[in-house]
Amino acid sequence: MTAVPTKPVFLTGASGALGRVLAKWLGGLGWTLVMTDIAAFPDPLPPGASFTKADLNDGPTILRLAEGCGAIVHLGGVSVERPFEEVLGPNIRGLFHIYEAARREKARVIFASSNHSVGFHERTESLPADTQFLPDGFYGLSKAYGELMGRLYWFKHGVENVNLRIGSACPEPVNNRMLASYLSYADFSRLVVACVTAGQTGSCVVWGASKNSRMTWWRDDARAELGWEPTDSADPYAGQLAGKVSGDPVEERYMGGAFCSIGYSRSAFAPAGLFDSAKG
Questions:
Q1: Does a structural domain hold residue 50?
Q2: Which one of 99, 139, 145, 237 is the catalytic residue?
Q3: Burial letters 147-172, b for 16+ CB under 10 A, else e
Q4: Residue 56, helix vs strand vs coil
Q5: Parallel, antiparallel, or unpaired for β 50-53 and 33-37?
Q6: Domain with 20 in it
Q7: What is the pLDDT of residue 1?
Q8: Cα end-to-end distance, the chain, whole Å
């Protein structure tokens, strides 16, 4: 039986796909949730939960909503690749408001980072959690910024944070790439529970992928310390998805997949190492 937190949990991005899944899961565990999103919450509220429509750019409102909360599960913000000006407000300024709230409340932050913070690593690599960031767009760049914000607030203010580098969180995998990157909703929900209820976390990273036999890209993270191990898998879909590829050499070369191809202007076959820039 998972312990129920003694303080409410602040959930941003509650009206998105993952937010709705998590609200139902945590509500079913008896957790008290303070939820917010820029869009209305479309489902019945879980027992004991409250919802306030708010913009992450509105710092005073975010501070007010976080009052008395022991953890902030931050799913809010732009969740796909968009022009920089669209990403800037919610993902950069908005995250600052989240961390200021966490600092004031002495709350732990569980940050929905992304594999797109390292998307330009090639699929032949095997990355430890402390690998260098290679974001594949402005969205991925904002997630790298978010992880660095967490490090700053941990070292400077002692704000604990767990950065979830989510792979492909969806009901089921839909292409060959997701045979490696798939994260089931149930594994995601159990991971968030572990992040909130674990002992001290410092500032750490967990790769968000289910127990997929093809998941050889990511390794050496904080899951053992958090007490989380995925139980679902993309493997049952391998037969039907093994040949389902895009035909785009950029998308199929890099971990970030289709996000890497958006606005891509180099040769698809150019060397991609950091010391090969003059050759590209």
A1: yes
A2: 139
A3: bebbeebbeeeebbbbbbbbbbbbee
A4: coil
A5: parallel
A6: 9-279
A7: 61
A8: 54
- Count of the separate structural domains present in the chain: 1
Are 181 and 214 in contact by the 8 Å Cβ rule? The answer is no
In a 3-state reduction of DSSP, which class is residue 182?
Answer: strand
Residue 4 in any domain: the answer is no
Asked if the structure places residue 226 within a domain, the reply is yes
Could you tell me if 35 and 11 are in contact, meaning their C-beta atoms sit under 8 angstroms apart? Answer: yes
Which range (174-183, 186-195, 262-271) has the least confidence?
A: 262-271
For position 278, what pLDDT does the model report? Answer: 39
CB 195 within 8 A of CB 222: no
CATH number of the domain to which 215 belongs: 3.40.50.720
Give this prediction's pTM: 0.95
Can 139 be counted among the known catalytic residues? yes
Q: What is the pLDDT of residue 55?
A: 98
Residue 270 tokens, joined: 């150019």
Q: Spell out the residues 6+ positions from residue 87 whose beta carbon is closer than 8 angstroms to its own.
A: 78, 138, 139, 141, 142
pLDDT tens profile 70-99 = 999 999 999 999 999 999 999 999 999 999
> Which residue in 267, 265, 262 sits closest to 279, CA to CA?
267
